[in-house]
Design a protein that fits this description.
3 strands, flat, single chain, Reverse transcriptase Ty1/copia-type domain-containing protein, 4 helices, 144 residues
Length: 144
Amino acid sequence: MATTKLDANLQGTQVDQTKYRSMIGGLMYLTSSRPDIAFATFVCARYQAPPTEKHLKDVKMIFHFLRQTINMGLWYLKDYGFELIAYSDADHVGCNDNCKSTSGGIRFLGDKLVSCSSKKQDYTAMSTAKAEYVSLSACCAQVI
């Protein structure tokens, strides 16, 4: 994926959207145990509307990489604790340009980090409590 730059160029031959979306969905499911393919998968997922043969070729490269590295990934032992712990925080008016807050959160399964996020909130919060509630709802959505 490092040598290929994907773009929304519609000049190539278009491929079946259903097949392409199915392949992307399977790869997104795998990103929970294979974080090494997350970036490449999400880049390919940007072009689901009019996928071309170039996009399909890159998705097939990800599957080829998975076939070559089948023993890699995150392993969760069955006798290990599966306690889900999530932390969330927000800063009020963190951005000086537009006065928007930034939400952040991390999720642990046992003592293993499984997800983290940081995002500027979509609107300006009028109070610290409101910014915290927005951050908490985003974190709960990730947990669910």
